[in-house]
Automatic annotation (TrEMBL):
This is DUF4340 domain-containing protein. PROSITE patterns: PROKAR_LIPOPROTEIN. Residues 218-404 form the DUF4340 domain. Pfam families: DUF4340.
Amino acid sequence: MFKRTTLILLGLAVACILGYFLFDNAQQLRQQAEAERAKLFHVQTDTIARIEIQQQSSDEPELIVLERVPDSDPTQWRILSPIQSAALDFPISSLLNTFSRLTPEITLEGSLDNPEDLAAFGLDNPKQQITLMPQAGDPYRLSIGNDNFDRSGFYARANDGEVVLIASAQKGSLLPSLLALRDKTLLSFDSADVESFQVRLAEADPEQFQIERQGNGWQITDPKRLPADDTNVNRLLNTLARLQAVEFPAETQADLAPYGLDNPSAQLTIKLAASAENSDPAPLTVALGSETNGQVHVITSQHPAVATLLTSTADILRSDLEDLRDHRIARLNANQIEAITLASEGEEITLQPLPSESGSPGIRWENPDQPGQAQELTSIFSTLNSARASEFLQDDPEAQKSLQDPTLRLTFRPKPDSGQDPLTLSLAPSGLRAYVQSSYQPDIAVIDLSTFHTLETEVNRLLEQEEAS
């Protein structure tokens, strides 16, 4: 008896749950159907092949015409009028989605009993008109008039039907500006394809230099060979490779003088490597002109217009030789060093790496003439690799005199298969700074005195231990 009652109650519970689910599902379907019926337009956005946006202004009417590129996957659009340009997908997708979901807040029935009444809604001569043209069938047209009294909505007509009130939040997506619609790409290339580039700066201190790819890094080759700062060079090239305009003051490059581009403040020329598709790619060029309102005028070889860049972007493109040269005094990999010679005050020691041991935190070094006294050189390597020149000196008598008899001399001999060049460093203190002559750099470098003292302390410690043994 108990089991039978339980089964009956369980069946009733299941029936209630099922009934509630079916009722709720039916209610949702009804609501969806009502929402679909309430829409102004019933349009499949993927069938739209052309969009026209007509806007009245105090100057002259503007007609923006957009056309879907046939057979493009993913979908692409082009602007046909008032300019010809590639278009951005996002604002067009937003327009189409908003258009297809438009639902009136109020329908003013009888609003067309007297056609002159349209003037009260600004619909006798609409301020804006949007027309979507499908691949087949009649177009969908939305005429937009005045805002209502509290600007919470605007009056509109769908295909010359009744006047409706639509929430004002919809208007922004429906009426993107020409600038918002157009593709703002000024240059497009793969920075990995760059073989070399040249920079010419015509500012207060004019200069010209060239940088070439060397293996996985970069080398300044003109006006003289200098190691380049790979990080800053790659930042410059990555900025160029995705260069985007802020505005377009002129659609052609016919008259450059008003924008300071007849005598550019900076010019960059990029040479790309040959490829299977293009055996002799044309150089890419960029020129920067005058600055106005926090923006800098620019032209490129890949775009016909005069554009502007943010000043912060232009500053990266105007990097000078000092910005792009490597300020390190050494590039050391302890795993690739065969021997180190450290000298100070007439004392000298040569150390070689010991075979690595399981669980050892790093490389240990010893003098082969006095085995059994392993040394840690982590501080020397980290100090040298982190040291940066605050400036470089050429033909400086004081620095040259100081380095004739350096306080420290460090020599690093690489392993034969390392691919590294030998490195020699001569260091001497001078007041609150120190001079370094490095075989990695052709010029004398100036470094912090604290960096010199760290190296001096480590070298003297090793020499003292050598002398004590």
